[in-house]
């Protein structure tokens, strides 16, 4: 910070003559610009910060919650599809009782097997249940998903 002297001449309003030079001191920084802020600038800055920061935190919180829900939904869907593929790969069991896949903590997998159709042989032989309706329900942190499919005896 350096002190500079400036001479300012004032005109006498009544006679239009040059007045006596007045010396004044001003505080300037590099490049001759004044340093410091007025109270209004500080108050406006604080008001803007008071509005912007809570808005940013609110938006960030919403984004994190949304990302968590999307991740949970993806895990629930993957678990349901994996369980269905596992059942399709196992040998047909008339009473159900298929093996469950392992799943992460916080998730639950439930399988319901319902006989879906009786098959009647053309020669009148006894009916055999050869089609099963498979309903898989996976529950996660943010809800559950139900996946349905069919298993056929081969």
Structural description of this entry:
The chain is of the alpha+beta class and 154 residues long. The chain has 2 domains: 2-32, no CATH class; 39-152, no CATH class. The protein has one helix at residues 39-89, and strands at 2-11, 18-28, 108-119, 128-140, 143-152. The chain has a 3-stranded antiparallel sheet with strand order 3-4-5. Strands 1-2 form a two-stranded antiparallel ribbon. A hairpin with an 8-residue loop joins strand 3 and strand 4 (128-140). The longest helix is centred in the middle third of the chain and has 51 residues, at 39-89. It starts with a strand and ends with a strand.
Sequence-ordered SSE layout with sheet pairings:
Blueprint: E1 2-11, E2 18-28, H1 39-89, E3 108-119, E4 128-140, E5 143-152
Antiparallel strand pairs: 1-2, 3-4, 4-5
